[in-house]
Structures
1.
Amino acid sequence: MRNEKGQFIKGTNPSPKTQFKKGMTPYNKGKKGLIKHSEEWKRKTSERLKQQWATGERRVVENFKPLSKHSEETKRKISENSKGKHSGSLAWNWIEDRTIVLEKHRLRGTQEWKNWRMAVFERDKYTCQECNAMGVYLEPHHITPIRSDMSKLFDITNGITLCRPCHQKTVWKESDFVEKYSLLVAA
Ligand SMILES: [Zn+2]
């Protein structure tokens, strides 16, 4: 609660959520006196501060800039360090994979995709070519993953009908199935 000058009015809380309500336990209950500094401590601290100000140990910093977590030097070292680790084929493959995955998502809704999928299903008589399941939810699988060869995206001989569980088993292990499925499709 603020007054007309925008100042907080004593005894009110700007946030009703954290506002102290009757019946609540005050945060300092039972702690009274714990944080009270001794006269001795106060005197010593006051003296220490006076001394620090006098010796220049403590001073008003002009143009104070908050320190960033890493200094420029540290930043340079980090970047040097990571160069060897993230460059090279692994990182690039990953980026390409991501791009193709996104492209695949985009193409999935197109008529061309639907036509390809339908042609694959028809050829395989709507049967999972792995477990021979019929009348279940089927998915077309790219025998050679399109992240390896984008040109085979709508190649019917690169597609095979799989049920969902069988399709899931091929994820990231496509190469293990290439030979088997290629033969099946060619048969
Ligand atoms: Zn199956």
2.
Amino acid sequence: MSSSLKTGATTLTSDSSLGARLTADRLASRRVSARCAVCGGDRLLEHLAVAGEQGPEGLIPTTDRFGTALSDIVWCPSCTHMQLREIPTEAELERAYGEASSDDYVDEEAGQRATARDLLERLERHAGRGALLDLGCWVGFLLDEARTRGWAPVTGVEPSKFASGYARDRLRLDVRTDDLMTADLPGGEYQAVVLGDVIEHLPDPGAALERVGELLAPRGAVMLMLPDAGSRVARLMGSRWWSVIPTHVHYFTRKSLTRLLTDHGFELRHLGTTPKAFTVRYYLERIGGYSPPVSQALVAGARALGVADRIWAPDFRDRMVAIAVSP
Ligand SMILES: [Zn+2]
């Protein structure tokens, strides 16, 4: 059975052979974090004990398995950043993303497109409409909306064979099935680079920003969307926060994200919240990650009221968008 759900670049299937491979990789080569990935601080403190409970299938990163990570989470008192105690290898994550697929996510197209239009409007205040690159573009809805708004050319890179194939075949987009950080792309060409739900999955987020800096034209803009681990909701919910999932390696706060950007030469221009626009049904079904019976009752109730397919964008203020300009 393939039960999977998305977050941006990162929907994964429950494939047991994949899980077994990932478990083997993990045992072989994971390293313990000695330093904060943002500020280099070496005094990392216990934060959340969320390791384990992965079952015999290993890494199965669906978004309805909240409160489970690949290892415990530690935090840095100097810059407030949080990260896994044990950082997974690139290979461990890449292989999983290559197998990712989700029909559910495609079904949420209207909400995804509405979110993309709102984000592009913000981006256009800081970057001229020119060449746009979406690293981790999933099925390409943001690229498609950008093309409509006059960005050209629009290019995407997406490791998932399912998602990149959808972008090419259904939306006729220039999307390559490739690794986000090593894909062969021209340097200094892009007016904007988008990283949506990507940087929190990468073992080395600083290296990712260096790469983005090489790809951007002078005064080009990077736009990042990601969970805000310093938000009120995240702090209140602790290990039960819905962004504590197995593929998240880093947990940024507004402060630690700003620090990472400025340390890599970017000038922060915008830092705000961005809700995820999804249907009512999607949200209610996600509650199944906490309590399946409650979720099923709520979905049935919403359907009876005729609101299950209505677009709903509740802003829990626990997702952030940052727009920063390169030197
Ligand atoms: Zn730090």
